[in-house]
Amino acid sequence: MRAWILPALCASLLAGCSLFSKPKRPPDPLPVPTGTARIDPAWNASLGAASGVGFSPVVVGDAVWAAAQNGTIAVFDLETGRERWRTLAGKPLSAGVGTDGTTGVVVSRDGELLAFDASGRALWSSSLGGEVITAPAVADGVVLLRTSDNRVLAFDGATGKRRWTYQRQNPPLVLRNSGGIAMVPGVGFVGMPGGRIAALSLTSGAPRWDVPLATPRGANELERVTDVVGTPLVIGRELCAVTYQGRIGCLELVSGAPVWSRDFSSAVGFDVDNSGLVSPDADDTVHAFDRRGTPVWQQKGYAGRRLSAPLIVGRLVTLGDYQGNVLWLSRDDGTLAAVSRTDGTALVSSAATGGRVVVTQTTGGALHAFRVE
Q1: Which 8-state DSSP code applies to residue 26?
Q2: In 49-92, at which residue ranges do the beta strands (DSSP E only) sit?
Q3: Three-state SS for 274?
């Protein structure tokens, strides 16, 4: 097995594995950019404290929401970076902000869900009874989140009252990853251990379907770790997802029936547009597939860079690395078009975008926004 994951394993088989340990060997030097994309710095801002896995900016309309581990929550203007408001949750946070633009929610390290309105005023709090390292999802008046022991919890967005809990039996060993949750009207889609994806009713928590994208296989528990990583994404009438040591593919949104899948392993996730899917694999080779799963291109040369989940922005794909570089790849063939610098600390979460402005968050607690010309 890959040596870089071994130090992250805990003694207990129920403990999670971290996929973001520092590389043990120097990364590949970056390819020379072609210069075919013009990327201009738009603005930067500081949250005043470190962030990490599970902390990423969220763009809703013309606002950027972000949070840091010390409890800072702030909202900035997307175009100018002007700070609209900033507040402290009063507790250290274990996961970043989730918001629908009206209500913002964060999770404290002691397992409390904290909600704020669009002006930063505290609304309510609710005990979770467990650790959360995934930013909550907010839609349809519901706050949905997944705990580290893989319970899915739903709360009323107005009152904080718990609506329901969904849980299935976990495999002996699971990844400690910050996979997100996709939501459409009435349904939330959650990636689970063992390569499964559950479509849950937002009203009752009843599963519309719960199916495997990948099946664990291997000679030992470590080889059989096959968890969904990143956030499942809805595109048209399909839901797409990727697993570690498993498969990448898409399912029918309504029934969960397989549309296509192929062997693949990613540690961070993927993005999708009308042309297809893009994902770095567990060895930091970036792959593109069309909407039926046929490979379109792959780009090597990033080994050891700990690439983040990608974001497709028009004809570009942007990813971050552990040295704080923002990489801009051609959507057409994967060649490196441009490189942007941040504060030099790792980029471990996907960027966010609104229009031509792309916002990244570093583990050093800085937001860096770029304008794609």
Answers
A1: P
A2: 58-60, 63-67, 72-77, 83-88
A3: coil
> Tokens 């120097």, residue?
26
CB-side neighbour CA atoms (13 Å) of 221: 17
- Written as one letter, the residue type at 305 is R
39: its two tokens: 């990327």
* Average confidence score pLDDT of the chain: 91
Segment 179-196 mean pLDDT: 92
Does position 4 have pLDDT exceeding 60, yes or no?
Answer: no
Per DSSP bridges, beta strands 174-175 and 181-184 are unpaired
174-175/16-17 β-pairing: parallel
State the maximum Cα–Cα separation within the chain, in Å, rounded to a whole number. Answer: 54
Which residues have CB under 8 Å from 181's CB, separation 6+?
134, 136, 137, 144, 145, 146, 152, 188, 189, 190, 231, 232
pLDDT, position 341: 97
Contact status, residue 109 vs residue 119, Cβ threshold 8 Å? no
Residue 118: pLDDT band with limits 50, 70, 90: very high
Rounded CA-CA distance 295/286 in Å is 11
pTM over cut 0.85:
yes
pLDDT, tens digit, for every residue of 251-289? 999 999 999 999 999 999 999 999 999 999 999 999 999
End-to-end CA distance of the chain: 42
Closest of 112, 184, 102, 190 to residue 150, by C-alpha: 190
